[in-house]
Amino acid sequence: MPKLPKVKIATTVIASTVLLSGCGLFGGEQAMKEIDPPQDVNMVDDQAKLEDGKSSEGNDKKEEATKDTVTRELYLVDKNGYVVPQTFELPKENSAAQQVLEYLVEGGPVTNMLPEGFKAVLPPDTQMTTDLLKDGTLVVDFSNEFTEYKAEDEQKILQSLTWTLTQFDTIKKVNIKVNGHEQNVMPVNKTPINDSLTRADGINVDNSDVVDVMNSELITLYFLAQEGENTYYVPVTKRVQETSEDKIVATINELIKGPGLVGGLLSEFNSEVELISEPDYKNGVVTLNFNESILGNLEGTAISKHIINSLVLSLTEQPGVESVAIQVNGKADLKADSGEELTKPVTRPQTVNTGEF
Fold it and tell me: Which residues form the GerMN domain (predicted)?
């Protein structure tokens, strides 16, 4: 099972900076409730300035330039072909759905913002209009340029559209039109889209270990990937056989098992990690009690922030799970290897990964 090289861990600050913030590790940020952009985020660029020729140390005036922006997730494709969320500060506009779609177009406004190794998913010059229906369906009407993609990119396009648009709580599912005509299948590889697109369809779907597809279920796991010195989190929807164990236990077991033969992904879980008691679920909080192997080779009671992040991101994909509390041998006096104490359950962040590579 691929493991994250230890030499890289100390240098991976970008994804963790976004995730390890606020209350606990992730913070208690709320999901986007409206399709309209949230309240302004002020980005302050402080620039030292000399006044009237005076240059006294410590007395320089600072000029503050403010810019109205909003935080958005764009699902882009990395060098390994995975559809991955990246977080950007975008200019504030009236139509949030229209805006994020425009930033998914190759050669569009996202071009100069793309992290190294990433690309946009929609064909160049694609245009679109959007219409949000009362039932939460977003109808996207694309121009003919939308049809000019390679067959092997069809699933990536569907997943990128679905997961980018459903970051907004008001959008439950997505319907696609081309030049005003409803589409029952995608135009190139004929993937069926009759019943609209939802996150239930999964992302970066891995069916490699399943024998009986009809008696299986989907769980979404978050593994690690690297580009240079930077680490980011990749969602992988895995099809697992239905068993008597609940989905929380199944999720943890799959994280421990790791990405397996799926290329380009990493994990910091070792094979000796195990739960020593059943997960306790109460009021949206899942409490997990692990053996000491969860600590790895770290000193004292520190747990890798990447393990914590993978657990929280994966488990909060399940309905009803809002936060995760971690224990080792029944004790909760733990901390992350980045220094934060795990005094409270860790909540999911509003956004995952950052575009500032």
Answer: 97-187, 248-337
Distance CA 161, CA 98 (A): 11
**Which pLDDT tens digit goes with each residue over 17-51?**
344 443 445 443 333 444 543 333 333 333 333 23
The Cα-based distances of 83 to 34, 115, 170 in angstroms read 24, 13, 22
- Asked if 333 and 339 count as a contact pair (C-beta separation under 8 A), the reply is no
235: closest CA among 163, 294, 174? 163
What span, in angstroms and rounded, lies between the C-alpha atoms of 93 and 294?
Answer: 44
Alpha helices by DSSP H, listed for the chain, are 6-9, 14-19, 96-102, 154-165, 247-257, 305-315
The Cα–Cα gap between 294 and 36 comes to 41
| Residue ranges covered by each domain of the chain | 6-28+204-347, 83-201
Give the pLDDT band (50/70/90) at residue 213: confident
Full-prediction pTM beyond 0.85?
A: no
